[in-house]
């Protein structure tokens, strides 16, 4: 256990919706009056949680509410959450761009933030001049930059253009140069916001590699915000999940990523739809997924066959024109495959269809099913994303064999045969 | 040649100012307060909503001094990139303004400048006024012009207005060279001009003027973040202020011709600065010590409030802009 280098203590940030500013003049006066009376700010009590999709009745919202995090030295902390969950606000507070409404951040090290690559680049200056300017903006001294100049230029791969004004650069080259400067920053704590999503594939690979060096090799403390779960998993040692400005999960990277992807909701492996999905041509009654040999309450294990049961009633007279299609997603949100009831067509009236996945087909992990009701094999007339989410647990393994996770998401058991030679 | 000259000026300014910075840092270190905080808490710094009224961290600004000089470099160099005349533009502006003023105010309107050639009289006033004006307008858009950068990265925001002041100092230095050129020309052609021995205090005068511009600029830049109307006011406000600053006429002439309105000029600290500058450079007019003391007090007050307001703004403006 190493020392705590950064302590985020009960940080909250309040914004006012609509107009700019912290409030109207009358709110300002009220606030000022309460301050004279040494009472707490009255507007800190109001405010709703930060949910983008719901219209709130209060003018004040909490972009962040009571965030407590302790970061150890050398740790790479991932911060994940949906758009508007408060990730960037948190980073902005950490980078001292904006102030928290309440709470304190304490740091034992110099924080450098990389919320954007190429901040302060001046189009008229040459590449080299911009390296110095950008480096200084990020907090390096002139001597530090001079020392690393050759390495930065080499890393950027812009040797040929280094004395050309940056306005003549392609956008890709500009980003390369900017990232190169940032990559050679040496603060105690580095705060990064999705800057890896830049440049071409080759450069991305290089950038991720450099990031890994920074965090693993040089033992620097890094706070990393990204939507790319694969890079979070590759880089971070620990992660937190933000939702509507509140921290809803803290723990290992893998757990945090799957927590985030299932949206924080409980696992659903059987659902009764009642009258909620009642369309013109069909009504969905229920869907369930379980091991064939086990009860619905039991966890699904990888070394047993899995059955997916769909119950619906078809109301129109042309059932042969319609199909059910499922898309299966893994916990990274990547589509694995799709499957349809082509071999067992729908019939008019009630249908209970069961689909079997052979044993050992799905690796342990979390999966999501999306439901599509397809007309004429090309047009989805109804889509319900993440209609099911389920976890496939590790099967029984013998003591002494490999206990970790095998690579990949499927583990088909192919036919093996001995041939005579 | 001129580009080399600018590089040299930049370098010299850098060295001189770094010396001043070191001096300030030593002064700041002498205060027991800074040592005290670092010993008491194991934390390097804290970020919270509480703010001190005066929170001016010299040590931090010192750490970012390289950034300040790189901004100065950028400001000076970027202006004349891809222009034909390049840095000559720094000279063309005051020369032609002085020429226009000489024709209109001295030849047409017959303003008397005594033994001093009118052109030199105007050039001195204009160069000095331009420095103040550039400091004021350059710093007054600190927040709005740099909002993009300020929303992405932290550095002490005061670095930006400071770099503007220094950039203008470089420009002013170049313009002063032209002034010296004409000075020598007029002197050699037998004009009755002479430098006053008080010229040794000229750098102090320039500093006071720069700080005055900085103070007002910081006040305005802070207020502009909330009330964008001010942006429109500055442009012509500065223009009007010039006519009240005794740039193209001596203060004595105002007293003589428009005694009822002379107080407008007398209350303007810049009028004393310009009068004094002309006195130092050309031995023209009189030096008013009470006026200068008044100017200094106003400068200190404006600078103090400017820093105070700027300091409060830099922490919350990103949510209001």
UniProtKB/TrEMBL annotation, chain A:
Source species, domain of life: Bacteria
UniProt-listed InterPro entries: AAA+_ATPase (IPR003593), ABC_transporter-like_ATP-bd (IPR003439), ABC_transporter-like_CS (IPR017871), ABC_transpr_TagH-like (IPR015860), Bact_Polysacc_Export_ATP-bd (IPR050683), P-loop_NTPase (IPR027417)
GO annotation, cellular component aspect: membrane
Keyword Nuclease attributed: no
Organism lineage: Bacteria, Pseudomonadati, Bacteroidota, Flavobacteriia, Flavobacteriales
GO MF entry, a single one: ABC-type transporter activity
UniProt similarity note: Belongs to the ABC transporter superfamily.
PANTHER family: TEICHOIC ACIDS EXPORT ATP-BINDING PROTEIN TAGH
Organism this protein belongs to: Seonamhaeicola aphaedonensis
Keywords annotated in UniProt: ATP-binding, Nucleotide-binding, Transport
Keyword Transport: yes
Domain ABC transporter stretches: 44-269
Pfam family, one: ABC_tran
Protein name: Lipopolysaccharide transport system ATP-binding protein
TrEMBL record, chain B:
Pfam families xref list: ABC2_membrane (PF01061)
PROSITE patterns per UniProt: ABC_TM2
All copies of domain ABC transmembrane type-2, residue ranges: 85-313
Membrane topology per record: Multi-pass membrane protein
Domain of life the protein comes from: Bacteria
Location of the protein in the cell: Cell inner membrane; Cell membrane
GO CC annotations on file: plasma membrane
Key words, A-Z: Cell inner membrane, Cell membrane, Membrane, Transmembrane, Transmembrane helix, Transport
Residue ranges crossing the lipid bilayer per the database entry: 12-30, 88-109, 115-132, 158-186, 198-220, 232-251, 287-310
One Gene Ontology molecular-function label: ABC-type transporter activity
GO biological process: lipopolysaccharide transport
Annotated InterPro entries: ABC2_TM, ABC2_TM_bact-type
PANTHER family named among the record's database cross-references: INNER MEMBRANE TRANSPORT PERMEASE, TRANSPORT PERMEASE PROTEIN
Entry's family note: Belongs to the ABC-2 integral membrane protein family.
Protein name: Transport permease protein
Organism: Seonamhaeicola aphaedonensis
